[in-house]
């Protein structure tokens, strides 16, 4: 019975790797066509407080190698000091790129209103979102994202936002968790089950965003401005993706456990508004990982199964998963996690229940 339970849970995990995550491994990430036109793009960045490296991040956006774009900075009721610092920065880069600073019209939890105000004020036909604490991987970020959208004639491009290298175990694990999240939302998208995006790197037609804004659910939540917009769109077939390395947008990982968990609680509250079957599948995946290691410890403690057999099953499981995901980790800039995958998966098994408990005890009210 113990052996059967572990084999079932291991089989469930492998099934996810084979059916969903394997799709990312086979992706063609290089654009086949060169960009021939340059439709105007509006880069919308909302902020409520300024990270210490905001100047470097804004400059990296302003120096994009794209001839027709603007930057819209939306202050979500930031402090006068932050507004002053931002105004000074804008004065220094206006000569290179059109930059506008506007204020959100309503002070409500989260940044949905700020994002919407930024979209409404945009002059571009296409809106590209990122965050104040993020930086593009290259000067071709805009070019790569818009080329995918115009080439395929879609309404939305899902981008990728990996973590920079950290200096402790928490930041290292944060990078791994980001990769796992990307494998899920890209894998589900490729399987025709699109359910989310990441706010620090995605592009949408202005008309598509404006037309679907009033359909968004969960308006009271302090998170989900990107995920809930994806959910509000009726035609998921008009959503594509970009995984070219030059289109990545990097951010610094949290190095403190409490900060990391607080950042991640928003995904749990937003997930209640995902399609029911999607929520069940996501929960089953996390349950299979946590359940596998939990039962392995319990069965070992009560002598129901030998340590040698647990190790053999785990090694076999890891080998199969490695075969299925090694190309995905390479494409997602995750090779530093690939070689330590068993450790990362064990930490993931601990992380899922800890995050669930933390989200119940700590309610995040702002973004």
* Rounded mean pLDDT score: 90
Number of strands: 9
Q: What form results from the Cα inertia axes?
A: globular
* Strand order in the largest sheet: 3-2-1-4-7-6-8
Uncertain stretches:
none
Distance between the termini: 46 Å
| Content of β-strand | 5-15%
- Class based on secondary structure composition and strand pairing: alpha/beta
**What is the alpha-carbon Rg in Å?**
21 Å
Helical proportion? 40-55%
CATH class of the largest domain: Alpha Beta
- Known CATH architecture of the largest domain: Alpha-Beta Complex
- Tally of contiguous helical segments: 13
Major β-sheet profile: 7 strands, mixed
Q: How would you spell out the order of helices and strands?
A: HEHEHEHEEHEHEHHEEHHHHH
CATH topology of the largest domain: Spore Coat Polysaccharide Biosynthesis Protein SpsA, Chain A
Brief characterization of the structure:
The protein is an alpha/beta fold and 367 residues long. 53% of the residues lie in helices and 11% in strands.
How would you describe this structure in keywords?
single chain; about 375 residues; alpha/beta; Spore Coat Polysaccharide Biosynthesis Protein SpsA, Chain A; 2 domains; seven-stranded mixed sheet; two-stranded antiparallel ribbon; 13 helices; about 55% helix
């Amino acid at each position: 019975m113990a052996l059967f339970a572990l084999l079932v849970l291991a089989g469930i995990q492998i099934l996810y790797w084979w059916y969903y995550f394997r799709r990312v491994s086979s992706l063609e990430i290089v654009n086949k066509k060169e960009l021939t036109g340059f439709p105007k793009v509006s880069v919308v960045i909302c902020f409520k407080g300024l990270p210490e490296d905001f100047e470097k991040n804004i400059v990296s956006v302003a120096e994009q190698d794209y001839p027709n774009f603007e930057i819209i900075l939306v202050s979500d009721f930031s402090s006068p000091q932050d507004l002053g610092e931002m105004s000074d920065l804008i004065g220094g880069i206006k000569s290179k790129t059109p930059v506008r600073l506007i204020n959100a019209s309503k002070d409500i939890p989260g940044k949905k209103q700020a994002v919407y105000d930024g979209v409404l004020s945009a002059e571009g036909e296409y809106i590209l979102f990122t965050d104040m604490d993020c930086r593009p991987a290259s000067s071709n970020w805009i070019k790569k994202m818009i080329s995918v959208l115009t080439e395929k004639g879609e309404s939305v491009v899902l981008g990728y936002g990996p973590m920079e290298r950290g200096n402790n175990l928490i930041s290292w694990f944060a990078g791994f968790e980001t990769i796992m999240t990307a494998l899920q939302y890209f894998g589900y998208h490729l399987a025709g089950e699109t359910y989310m995006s990441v706010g620090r790197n995605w592009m949408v037609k202005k008309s598509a965003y404006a037309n679907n804004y009033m359909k968004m659910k969960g308006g009271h939540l302090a998170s989900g401005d990107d995920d809930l917009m994806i959910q509000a769109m009726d035609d998921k077939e008009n959503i594509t993706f970009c995984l070219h390395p030059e289109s990545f947008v990097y951010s610094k990982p949290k190095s403190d456990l409490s900060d990391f968990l607080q950042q991640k609680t928003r995904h749990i509250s937003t997930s209640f508004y995902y399609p029911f079957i999607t929520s069940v599948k996501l929960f089953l995946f996390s349950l299979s990982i946590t359940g596998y290691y939990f039962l392995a410890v319990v069965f070992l403690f009560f002598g129901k199964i030998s340590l040698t057999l647990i190790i053999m099953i785990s090694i076999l499981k890891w080998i199969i998963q490695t075969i299925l995901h090694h190309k995905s980790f390479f494409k997602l800039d995750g090779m530093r996690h690939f070689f330590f995958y068993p450790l990362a998966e064990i930490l993931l098994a601990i992380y899922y229940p800890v995050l669930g408990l933390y989200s119940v005890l700590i309610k995040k009210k702002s973004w």
